Amino acid sequence: MQDGAAVRVSVVGFDDGSEHLKMLDGKIAKEINADLSHSSDLTVAKRLRENIGISFEGVKPAGPFDIPEAQALEWLDMPNPEGLSNREVLRLYINGRDITDKPSNRWIVDFNQMPLEKAQMYI
């Protein structure tokens, strides 16, 4: 049982640009960024050329694209009337927990920014 509620309030105020003193979290700030921080403005961050080809963020599933392993293995070699291979879009999804703990054997459909017209050709 809980006595009361947890209430959090954020107040953001803007002026016409004539105010020169900027306050954030009760402290004076040189600048206030779009994400309401006063440290580095990450909204202007750029990719570093030096990091090209070094790392890869990977797939971020966004939708009901999980497939049980048995089904995925069956689909890998399923013939497609359009001559396409399901191997192009079926992927074993591996995250940190799969590496440090027990593998989940989770498979996903990954159209990887494929045009809708081509994605619709897979069965």
Q: What would you say this structure looks like, in words?
A:
The chain is largely without helices or strands. It contains three helices and five strands. The strands form two sheets. A three-stranded antiparallel β-sheet has the order 3-5-4. The protein is elongated and about 70 Å long.
Brief descriptors of the model:
elongated
Task: Tell me briefly what this model is.
With 123 residues, this protein is largely without helices or strands. The chain contains three helices and five strands; from the N terminus they run βββαβαβα.
Form type: elongated
Work out the number of β strands.
5
Name the beta content range: 5-15%
Q: Please count the helical segments.
A: 3
Alpha carbon gyration radius: 24 Å
